[in-house]
Amino acid sequence: MFQKDLLQNKRILITGGGTGLGKASAQRFLELGAEVYICGRRQEVLAATERELRARTGAKIHSLPCDVRDAAAVEKMIENIWVEGQLHVLMNNAAGNFLARTEDLSLGAFQSVIGIVLMGTLHTTLSCGRRWLAAKQSGVVLNITTTYTTTGSAYVVPSAAAKAGVQALTRSLAVEWGNRGIRMNAIAPGPIPTEGAFSRLLPRPDLEVEAKKRNPLGRFGTTEEFANLAAFLVSDGSGYINGEVVTMDGGEWLQGAGEFTALGRELTEKEWAMMKPKPKA
Ligand code: HXC
Ligand code: NAP
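That is the input. Now the predicted structure with hexanoyl-coenzyme A docked in place:
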């Protein structure tokens, strides 16, 4: 799909790059010539991914344990990376989420998810952004949100609120920093099977069948499809795309939003025939 050297000489940090969509993106970026840094909280998970992707691609990958909720730890990580050379791309992918009734949630539960998703994104973006601005260097930020940022969603309220904040941050800074060479976009994915997301959000296998029925394409997305879109958006070829949130969900949210979609699927052939215009006398 891409030229082999699409991301040659790009240095990219992916938060939450040890698993799931972050790991798939790391592999794609490495295959396309980038040097990749991944961070997360679990050192053993990061180290295993680093080993696996280095063996698979033969490219330069580094892993750095870091909790993005901790602003000082983020600043230290970014400083350590910059000592070796500037980053060109930041991908804010780390997230926390779980399915819960909102009235049952503790303040700590809200703080945990908002801390990872919104504050974590802010910490890394400010650390990189200030360096790019001070050195008059260009930079690219890609934030990972969800399809429920605009509509909200019951039972994932901390995530919905935090991801909506990330989307507002994306559009705000795309304008504020755009004239100084910093481009900022987001991907809003629909369901893509990963251990992290599905273990927390789809607790029973039969719910997966129902979830697929809610999608016009009748299937979930793949990590490869996600990684291809991420590679496209961070590459110089998409240099005029700024402040955009690209939905990648097979049309799922539009299907849910359409007034007559569900009704139309319930109608029988006989009922469809009844809806046709009567022959003129
Ligand atoms: C209610 C919960 C909870 C749950 C934790 N808490 N899990 N409350 N229901 N299922 C509460 C705890 O009681 C605690 O509150 C607070 O949240 C922090 O919990 P900890 O376990 O101490 O936190 P921590 O170890 O930091 O774990 C963070 C986490 C966890 C967010 C809770 O799930 C995590 O590590 N997630 C990372 C990966 C992830 O979530 N991936 C999915 C991304 S998918 P108190 O008050 O006791 O301190 C996604 C979009 C999917 O984002 C969209 C699909 C379409
Ligand atoms: P995942 O595998 O659980 O990825 C989340 C990653 O974030 C993990 O590697 C985790 O590693 C890291 N992380 C969590 N808290 C962190 C913290 N405080 N500091 C640093 N790293 C932290 O889930 P995923 O499905 O790949 O999700 C990736 C992104 O896609 C997320 O932004 C998610 O919201 C978004 N998304 C996913 C889907 C989907 O269906 N998969 C749909 C919509 C949006 P540690 O636990 O080791 O820290």
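The longest helix spans residues 107-134.
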